[in-house]
Design goal:
Shape: globular
Strand order of the largest sheet: 5-2-3-4-10
CATH class of the largest domain: Alpha Beta
CATH topology of the largest domain: Aminopeptidase
CATH architecture of the largest domain: 3-Layer(aba) Sandwich
Helix content: 25-40%
Low-confidence stretches: 1-13, 19-35, 436-445
Mean pLDDT: 86
Strand content: 15-25%
Number of strands: 18
Structural class: alpha/beta
Length: 445
């Protein structure tokens, strides 16, 4: 359904007033009464749907817990395999991240939450993984706990790694100077790299500690692939999931691996000092951007609403040629994800790697069922600029709406930002992804 002249005129009005409409009090009635999207489980069409069906790759997540000599949480990461079963990504989670994701009366870091976990108790491990997964909006399949010696063994046969350390590595509990490694470019043995991960520096801020973790893990995974793992496909051609975290880690290291840092929404002060002085709040939009790309089938869908896949062919050149405020494609995608969250939808699958052809102007939204058209049109009026909504020719399992992003989105955001400058009292929900119709942001996890 291509935008009609009346719709274009209406969109001009929308741009002019959107900055005011998005103020929470004014938008609440609109979202609840008009744009709260239809529950995708209700009113499904009866009959045979003979459209081609596509399954997203099944890419499991494992939670890697690294502990220090006294059992304290030293490093935390989510390992995700590539669709072919080897290699993948390592998303690094700050140990001072608020497990409540910024909600609740008082923050609690994942490090503090870990301190009450018995690592030999499978139930407690599963509960901890569920908490971390909810913070990141993903499901965790398996959890592995490693102290220093166990991690050194698991990372074999990695030998030497080249690391650029942002700070010197000190261990306050060590005898003597306590220096594990100096700052700057270093060549480290595997055991020294692990020592840097588990070292306890009583005077290093949690944020600096996380930067050190990112540098060390980036150096370690740069040495992959190592080892040789034979993953035999099932009879239907699918890749069997790993039977344990140990197998998941072995498969991960047998292929190319990229270390990913997670963006922070904010850093909260900890006046008591009980939580290390700083509490980081992971940016949920960035978590969805990361895991929507590498593990879409494990992304949680807490809202009783439609699920979205976002395909963007917008290039860095197209972005630079526009007047939009975004400085990078990831920033653009985080903003869009935040807008979808604001309208209580579920962005679960993301592809922001441009194809061979640059993006068109008009954003195309393909819906799996005709009954979703009016809801998606209502949402699109406030998000995408020029758009068209059509019934999908093929169905992606678990996805209600496929968005092929057009450059009209950039023009629309430019106009909205200009309107907000004229009305500084307006609030942009995309900055946080918070929804207007619940007290806690409506993200359910």
């Amino acid at each position: 359904m291509t935008a009609q002249p009346g719709r274009r005129r209406r969109r001009t009005v929308v741009v002019g007033v959107l900055a005011v409409v998005l103020v929470v009090a004014a938008a609440a009635g609109f979202v609840v009464g008009v744009v709260t999207l239809t529950n995708s489980q209700e009113g499904e069409a009866v009959g045979v749907d003979d459209r081609p069906r596509i399954e997203l790759p099944d890419t499991p997540n494992g939670l890697l817990v690294v502990v220090g000599a006294d059992g304290e949480l030293a490093s935390l990461a989510v390992a995700t395999l590539l669709p072919d079963g080897t290699g993948g990504s390592l998303a690094l989670v700050p140990t001072n991240a608020d497990v409540n994701a910024g909600f609740g009366d008082e923050p609690q870091t994942v490090g503090a939450a870990w301190s009450s976990v018995d690592p030999t108790d499978d139930t407690e491990l599963e509960e901890f993984a569920t908490e971390v997964g909810a913070m990141l909006s993903i499901a965790i399949d398996q959890t592995g706990v490693y102290d220093g010696p166990a991690l050194v063994a698991a990372l074999a046969p990695i030998d030497l790694v080249e690391a650029e350390l942002p700070v010197a590595v000190l261990d306050s509990d060590a005898i003597g100077s306590g220096v594990v490694s100096e700052a700057g470019d270093q060549v480290l043995r595997r055991s020294e790299a692990v020592d840097a991960l588990v070292a306890v520096d009583a005077f290093l801020s949690p944020i600096d500690q996380h930067a050190l973790d990112v540098a060390v893990w980036t150096a370690l995974v740069a040495a992959t692939p190592v080892g040789d793992v034979d993953v035999t496909p099932a009879t239907d051609g699918s890749v069997p999931p790993p039977s344990s975290f140990e197998e998941l880690l072995e498969r991960l290291l047998a292929g190319p691996v990229i270390a990913r840092d997670l963006a922070l929404a904010e850093v909260l002060a900890d006046p008591s000092g009980d939580l290390g002085g700083e509490v980081a709040v992971v940016d949920r939009r960035d978590a969805l951007l990361v895991f929507g790309q590498v593990s879409p089938t494990r992304v949680l869908t807490p809202n009783a609403a439609l699920t979205f896949r976002i395909d963007s062919d917008i290039t860095e050149g197209q972005l630079a040629a526009s007047d939009v405020k975004f400085e990078s494609i990831p920033e653009m995608m985080r903003n869009l994800i935040g807008e979808l969250l604001f309208f209580q939808s579920n962005p679960v699958s993301i592809d922001s790697v441009p194809g061979d052809d640059p993006a068109e102007v008009v954003t195309r939204l393909e819906v799996t069922q005709q009954q979703f058209v009016s809801d998606v049109e209502a949402l699109a009026e406030f998000v995408f600029g020029e758009f068209e909504v059509v019934l999908a020719d093929e169905v992606i399992e678990g996805i209600d709406v496929v968005v092929t992003l057009g450059t009209g989105y950039l023009d629309f955001r430019t106009a909205v930002d200009a309107a907000m400058i004229e009305d500084p009292a307006a609030e942009d929900p995309a900055e946080t992804g918070s929804s207007v119709d619940s007290d806690d942001g409506g993200d359910g996890g």
